Amino acid sequence: MPSAATVRAKRRTTPAVNPRATHLALALRCVAEQSGEISRAGIAAGTGLNRSTASSLIDELIGGGLVREVGSTARTRAGRPGTALALRPDGPAGLGIDVNVDYTAVCVVDLTGKVRYKHVVAEDQRGHGTREILDRVDRLARGARQAAEADGLDLVGSAVAVPGIVDRAGATVTLAPNLGWRDLDVSDLLPAGAHGERAALDNEANFAALSEAGLLRAGGSYLYVSGQIGVGAGIVLDGELYRGSHGWSGEIGHLTVDRNGPPCPCGRRGCLERYAGHEAILRAAGITDGAGTTFGVRPTADLITERAQAGDPATLAALAEAGAVLGGVLAGCLNLLDVGRLVLGGIYRQLAPWLAPEVEREVAAHFLGAGWASPEVTVSTYGAEAPALGAALSVVRTIVADPLRWLTR
Amino acid sequence: MPSAATVRAKRRTTPAVNPRATHLALALRCVAEQSGEISRAGIAAGTGLNRSTASSLIDELIGGGLVREVGSTARTRAGRPGTALALRPDGPAGLGIDVNVDYTAVCVVDLTGKVRYKHVVAEDQRGHGTREILDRVDRLARGARQAAEADGLDLVGSAVAVPGIVDRAGATVTLAPNLGWRDLDVSDLLPAGAHGERAALDNEANFAALSEAGLLRAGGSYLYVSGQIGVGAGIVLDGELYRGSHGWSGEIGHLTVDRNGPPCPCGRRGCLERYAGHEAILRAAGITDGAGTTFGVRPTADLITERAQAGDPATLAALAEAGAVLGGVLAGCLNLLDVGRLVLGGIYRQLAPWLAPEVEREVAAHFLGAGWASPEVTVSTYGAEAPALGAALSVVRTIVADPLRWLTR
Fold it and tell me: In this structure, are residues B395 and B170 in contact, taking their beta carbons and an 8 Å threshold?
């Protein structure tokens, strides 16, 4: 327990608002939103700052390698054409890695939020040792780094998505039941940034959710539901990830659907993923040949889709049941969280034609506000690459959110 | 859909950060935290601003009636004693009103967050018309206003708690099943502030949750569970209420416990409040004489408590069952939200000796992170007065959070 004097002393060192940091971030955000269409005068108008302040902020961002001049803007209300400004596509970039149960993916995103490289390897990780899994990650990261360097990019940071809960500091995998990881500090084992920065860790559904918000924190507030072997969710509030007190938010896969239900690797019974996880759907649909969820390199979600399209009754029944159970849980999440949109990601994206109507029906039946404003049920923009993309984006989002910290690193 | 040009024009008018607003808020917060112990020099040290800026901010806050000088500070590291500063207890104050199912309460809180007046009237509102309920509210508010005026306070705003969901704008009660209110715009019907400001509306659990955070947004992140006829929850993240996209967050009372369970006034079946609401506990305990939940002016939660203390088996079984069902739902909420603390409020405060152990057991069994960090299960600081107190606090919190807006109103 700190003494009152310590608390007071601490308060005294609380920094006041740093206007330069705030203004640099505002100016950079203006450039990002109006890429190639905005001049220094436009930045002044957009931020409410005076012309000379805006101009010197832009000079600083150009000097720091974040912004470049790209020609002339069209004539605007603000007066004659100016020099158009844009984020640098050859500046700092982020590396995202997704260690999932049945595949590993890497992705490189540049400062403009554009994907510059991606690679996915399907392989079931279960039954492989931690060292073996991390070696595979290393090989993929090396490939991504070579490609990025060849493309003139500076990979300044990396972030790694895992199918489990991660501590808030982003260093330790607290529990990843499907990988058999528990209290595993992987921060030293993962690929670092080009300048030695440690990789940031997070849950795969969190990073997948971030892929939907993009570079500019668009899309408002939503619950992103990621269907994998497990089922996870990422909560995005006003374009920012809500991670919870320990970094464990969104663990809907282990919400109890039925206390007397089938046992779960987490040690409990009747968890949502036993009904709506990838393997649960395969099992219920009677697709049992082959271990795991990839037949060679053929994703089994494709098999489910084909059988559903062909009208296979067992598959349709399995999807209806999974959708109903998932929808019931999501209606409860909406009663608690009240977000305006659900995003179906992971395998649910591909299976949405069969799952979404069931989810909508359950939400209409069980969300208390359904009579006034039904949440949109949408499918994710990205498929299996979403967690790796979101991880890579998280690196560049950090720079865009606080350019001063980047410039003075 | 606005055109790109409209969007651009809008962006141009986005105000830049207003340093004066931010600095006034910082300075006022410093005064509030160190009430009567801090001088102008201390404010400068605490905010990181220079002495003359800090001093002129304080002069502005004194001139605006928010801060007063109260003597001398003790000698500190910052040098010789200065004039001690404190929030004005005779400045603006807030009126909070709680229209609950079986009682109505009013509360006046001054700028320092201190309760200056409170009054609770037990009366079942069910079966009474809206006009009758609002007349009672009006009478109570008039009494509070007279008391506040006699005490030299300026009641600058009022806020009203209702047992239901309220739109985000705080004008319409979307649904209050236990009052029979639906889409009821009450903003013109409720007592206004002394200068005509409209009352702000919110859910009773939200305002009750705010009572726990206090004036200075203390207490971090928690889920406040309010046991009443219904069961509600308020989500507080870093000391601020999280209201959701429509203002409907925290509606845990209608989470489905059993789809085949007893019918609920909301139109669904097996909602949490059918198991853990006040009347459900009374029914399960076999306390059936008397309508509603107050026997005359004697709260029935007292009856439950007495019987539990006397070891009545039916009452103990009813509490164990209610606690187990409540705990199961709360464990699910923790898997989604990951907050570090649960606060048991409303009747759960009084019943905590029997409910809390069951809640803790269910959380340990069903919260995925329970093996690493179990959330604290605490009881609320305030009892039945919590929603009215939180409502009154919400008025003065607004002033403390943004004094410039108040000074230039």
Answer: no
Nearest CA in chain A to B19: A19
pLDDT of residue A6: 37
How many residues appear in chain A?
409
- The C-alpha of B69 sits at a distance from chain A's nearest C-alpha, in angstroms, of 20
Nearest 5°: the CA angle A31, A36, A41 is 60
Number of A–B residue contacts, CB under 8 Å: 162
pLDDT for B219: 74
Most A CBs within 10 A among B6, B7, B10, B11, hence the mutation to make, goes to B11
Q: Model confidence over B262-280: pLDDT tens digits?
A: 998 878 889 999 999 999 9
Residue B282's identity, in one-letter code, is L
Chain A contact set for B33 (CB, 8 A): 11
Q: Are B235 and B205 in contact (CB under 8 A)?
A: no
Spatial distance between the Cα atoms of A343 and B356, rounded to a whole number of angstroms: 35
Cβ of A251 and B368 within 8 Å? yes
B14–chain A nearest CA distance, Å:
7
Whether residue A373 and residue B15 make contact (CB cut-off 8 A), yes or no, is no
Residue B56: phi, psi to the nearest 5?
Answer: -75, -30
Domain B92-214+387-407 shares a fold with domain B224-380: yes
The topology under which CATH files domain A222-381 is: Nucleotidyltransferase; domain 5 (3.30.420)
What fold does the segment set A16-87 form as a domain?
Arc Repressor Mutant, subunit A (1.10.10)
Determine whether the interchain pair A339/B15 forms a contact, defined as Cβ–Cβ distance below 8 Å. Answer: no
- The pLDDT score that the predictor gives to residue A293 is 56
Number of neighbouring beta carbons within 10 Å of residue B267: 12
- Nearest-Cα distance to chain A for B219, in Å, is 12
Q: How many other C-beta atoms can be found within 10 angstroms of the C-beta atom of residue B187?
A: 17
> What is the DSSP track for B90-141?
TSEEEEEEEE-SSEEEEEEEETTS-EEEEEEEE---TTS-HHHHHHHHHHHH
Q: Which ranges of A14-96 would DSSP assign to H, the alpha helix?
A: 19-33, 40-47, 51-63
Sequence-ordered list of residues with C-beta below 8 angstroms from that of A160, at least 6 positions apart, any chain: A96, A97, A98, A99, A137, A186, A190, A199, A200, A201, A202, A391
Q: Do B255 and A332 touch (CB under 8 A)?
A: yes
Measured distance CA(B328)–CA(B337) in Å, rounded: 14
Q: Is B268 on the interface with A (CB under 8 A)?
A: yes
Q: Over 60: is that where the pLDDT of A107 sits?
A: yes
Residue B263 sits at the chain A interface (C-beta within 8 Å): no
> Is A333's Cβ below 8 Å from some Cβ in B?
yes
What is the assigned CATH class of domain A92-214+387-407? alpha beta
Q: Does A250 contact B336 at a Cβ distance shorter than 8 Å?
A: yes
- Reduced to 3 states (helix: H, G, I; strand: E, B; else coil), residue A224 is strand
Instruction: Return the residue of B nearest to A9 by Cα.
Output: B46
Q: Domain-by-domain residue ranges, chain A?
A: 16-87, 92-214+387-407, 222-381
Per-residue model confidence as pLDDT tens digits over A175-200: 887 788 888 888 777 777 667 778 88
CB < 8 Å to B19, chain A: 17, 19
| CATH code that applies to domain B224-380 | 3.30.420.40
Whether ipTM tops 0.90, in short, is: no
Which positions in chain B touch A328 (Cβ < 8 Å)?
A: 256, 259
pLDDT per position as a tens digit, A246-276: 989 999 998 988 888 899 888 888 999 999 9
pLDDT number for residue A80: 67
**A22–chain B nearest CA distance, Å:** 8
Q: Per-residue pLDDT averaged across A81-86, rounded? A: 89
DSSP B329-369: HHHHHHHHH--SEEEEEEHHHHHHHHHHHHHHHHHHHH-TT
Residue A17: the pLDDT is 60
Residue A168 near residue A200, CB atoms below 8 Å: no
> pLDDT tens digits, residue range B273-314?
999 999 999 999 998 755 455 555 566 789 999 999 999 999
